[in-house]
Amino acid sequence: MTRRAxxxxxxxxxxxxxxDAELGFHRALTIEELVAAGLAPxxxxxxxxxxxxxxxxxxxxxxxxxxxxxxxxxxRIAMSLIVTSVRAVVRDIRRAxxxxxxxxxxxxxxxxxxxxxxxxxxxxxxxxxAGITAPGELRRVVEHRRSRxxxxxxxTELGYLDYQDxxxxxxxxxxxxxxxxxLLYGSGESAERIQGLLVTGNYFPLLGVTPALGRxxxxxxxxxxxxxxxxxxxxxxxxxxxxxxxxxxxxxxxxTHRYTVVGVAPRYFTGSSxxxxxxxxxxxxxxxxxxxxxxxxxxxxxxIGAIVRLAPxxxxxxxxxxxxxIHRQGYADVPGADAQSRLExxxxxxxxxxxxxxxxxxxxxxxxxxxxxxxxxVANTANLFLARALRRRDAIALRLALGGxxxxxxxEQAGEGALLALIGxxxxxxxxxxxxxxxxxxxxxxxxxxxxxxxxxLLVVLGLxxxxxxxxxxxxxxxxxxxxxxxxxxxxxxxxxxxxxTRTQVAxxxxxxxxxxxxxxxxxxxxxxxxxxxxxxxGLDTDRLLVLSVLRGPExxxxxxxxxxxxxxxxxxxxxxxTRIAGTLSFVSSxxxxxHVPGLAERPRVDDGGPYLSxxxxxxxxxxxxxxxxGRAFTDADRQGAPRVAVVSRRMAQLYWPGASxxxxxxxxxxxxxxxYTVVGVANDTRRQALVEGDTLRYYLPLDxxxxxxxxxGRLLIRATDADLDTLGRIAETxxxxxxxxxxxxxxxxxxxxxxxxxxxxxxxxxxxGLFGVFGLLALVVASLGLYAVVLFNVEGRRRExxxxxxxxxxxxxxxxxxxxxxxxxxxxxxxxxxxxxxIAAPAVASLLFQIPPRDPAVFAxxxxxxLGAAALASAIPGLRAGRVEPSRALRDE
Amino acid sequence: xxxxxxxGTLDVLVLRAVASRATHGYGVARWVRETTDGALxxxxxALYTALHRLQKAGLLRAEWKTSETGRRAKFYTLTPGGRxxxxxxxxxxxxxxxxxFKALGAPRRGRSS
Lengths: 894, 113
Prior knowledge:
The structure holds 2 protein chains of 2 kinds.
Chain A: H1 3-36, H2 41-52, H3 55-95, H4 97-126, E1 138-146, E2 152-155, H5 160-166, E3 172-185, E4 192-199, H6 203-207, E5 213-214, H7 219-223, E6 229-232, H8 234-241, E7 251-254, E8 257-264, E9 279-282, H9 283-290, E10 305-310, H10 316-330, E11 342-346, H11 358-391, H12 393-401, H13 406-443, H14 456-482, H15 486-495, H16 503-534, E12 545-551, H17 561-571, E13 575-583, E14 595-596, E15 612-616, H18 620-624, E16 628-631, E17 645-649, H19 650-656, E18 666-669, E19 677-683, E20 698-702, H20 708-712, E21 715-720, H21 725-742, E22 748-753, H22 754-797, H23 799-807, H24 812-841, H25 857-883, H26 887-892
Parallel strand pairs in A: 4-9, 6-8, 15-20, 17-19
Antiparallel strand pairs in A: 1-2, 1-10, 1-11, 3-4, 3-10, 5-8, 6-9, 7-8, 12-21, 12-22, 13-15, 13-21, 14-18, 16-19, 17-20, 18-19
Helix pairs in contact in A: 1-2, 1-3, 3-4, 3-13, 4-11, 4-13, 4-14, 5-10, 11-14, 11-16, 11-22, 12-15, 13-14, 16-22, 16-24, 16-25, 17-21, 22-24, 22-25, 24-25
Chain B: E1 2-3, H1 9-17, E2 23-24, H2 25-35, E3 41-42, H3 44-56, E4 60-66, E5 72-78, H4 80-104
Antiparallel strand pairs in B: 1-3, 2-5, 4-5
Helix pairs in contact in B: 1-3
């Protein structure tokens, strides 16, 4: 039976009993009267029945009426409670504005944090990508396999043939492929990078999307070579074309081809993830340009992700097993492939596992952290109400003595708390409305956010949270008190001196302290990870290097164009030097050639592949800031025709010639090598593309001596005199302008600071450190204020004791020590509990950290010390007051 | 249900019955019988229905108390709202009765104001 049904049933039984009792009384009196008048008992009973009329009919009618009366009564009580609460709040605002403000501020803080994070967590984790039909049936495909070096790999990158295989699994309703790609849109001054998603023609029907305008491309249209059609993202259509339907049929210059717009995707549709998407292109047509090689027929190209829809009734596990079988058959003939490779079907918006980015996992954490902040706020609010109850103890005791019901008192307090919390929730919604979008875009700039951070669900969730939190905070002190005798409890709360801290107060302090510790430990771990990640030796001065990217148009370029651009760039103030580099450039591009080292029995392998090759000018190592650890760098003498030389990375030297010097060794480059490059130097290691990556093998050749196709290309690397952001920004802008002035027909020109290129990789730690840091500090402040209030309150209550101690010769210093020790003792419980919980919980975030153990002693000790320090400070202020108590006055009091 | 009573009259009678002091249903029934000298006969079931209906309308308040005979009984009292309605209804009845008597040519028995 539901609660409501139980309630109704009880009401009915109560009503029946009452009506029967009332009518029974009536009948008995009537019969008594008639018997007294001389009637025989039987006759009296008959007469009574006659006077009453048809009893069953009236009885039923009366019961029905009574039930309605009971309902109305309950409603009336609830209404009067609301009225009482409103009155109490209005009275409080007038009489104790500080208290009201404190409670509302505290709850606004807790609720506001949640209002903002709700939209965030909802978009990233709960709801996932928008505009998709039945997203619960969709899965992202993850391949688990062993790499050639034996490492476990879990990756979403698959080959085109893997996608074709998936389409054959009959436990799937379908499979589609996607590949995200930054694309160059437009030309010259107006050229920009946009976010493209390359998708197969069946992608839109598989996800169950209908176009906002026009049509999507069809499967055969997409698969046909050279089908250059485009579907625009809704926001892109709005911002670049003002939402004009005439966009259909227009042709847009994307990368090196013109694509005809055939449709516009529905609003907020961003494919299978929540990242911003400006344009959707046919995967096959675009891949012909972007992937060099026989990607349609070879299993050696992995660049697409696959999305599958489970067939009706099929379980994800069974479908994955079937797909795995087909997948392994496909690789049976591929040499070196892992025969035990396995496919996994993961939800689209997973917060953990191979498909979840660090940022998504952090987003999941943020939701939990926001809830912690709310709990802390509620705990602190409870302390405020408790302090008020203690102040008003006389009035409350009087009311209870006069027969007031404790339940009514609790209900009134709860109502008042809920109402104050609703005010806080209102402010919080306003904050989320105004500030939510900005915070969301700041934290997750790459996500396509909904236009409003506030929706009905948020209002409902926040309203419920406010009512529950406010009511609990306000009623908890009373409820706890009432289990014993409220009046007695309120009295002892003040008079029992040192033991006067009530259990509730202590519990609240412990909860607050523990939660603050949790948040601060999180902050500490993320901050240390961020610091570690930032201090990684990247092997080159990314902070002051800019890389110039230039894309030519179809027009033939003048032969001296590069030299003219370089000369112009070198004249820009703030530019220290420039150098030209072709092939591999850290974080920007990679280049590998077949490399052979004569006399080496087995070529060392690392997961990263390679070795990767860079062709550089003699000044490269100075300009980039990559130090030479052994031998020499290149010189101007290492030109074409001179003896051929090479510089290898330290790791390559160690792996290729372990225990021996690399200098003087021979490297042969290319499929048909025509002689040795003699190693003349060993350079410091540099990263290839990620901050966090395994060993990477690299070597450098003089640009003049490099293979012909490397000599032709290359990028200009610019070194600024300092790492000042203004300088870097000015150089980037001037470089772009001057370059376009020299060659107006260039498709695209951009000078980017290498730190900016690397920055997105730091985002998860930045996010974690920032969020935990802010929330942790808030928690620390709130907890300190709570402790301060409690200690202050206790000092007030112990004036007499303090006065006595002072009269007996205690110094102000010893009284201060007494109070501070008490405060520390109260805080210590929370710190201990918090550290214990953090100790248990920390390993859960280990995967999000970088080179920091989840139980990092430095973080734990630091947090404990800072919390106890804050506690000492919070109790020292009231403690000083205790020291100033005048013995005579204190003893006279009370 | 009720005989010889004008429509709406029962409610006013019941209100009047509990006007001076808290009374249980039996007391109300006896009062109606006695004050009208048995001229008005009302089924007691209808009387209770009226009591409960008036309670639901908020004109009466009910409370379980010990009766003069020592038994537990449900006592009814007028709420401020009930008292107001009783006053209004009484005046209305007087007015219409006066008008009626006037129309029927009976001796005037208007209110002395």
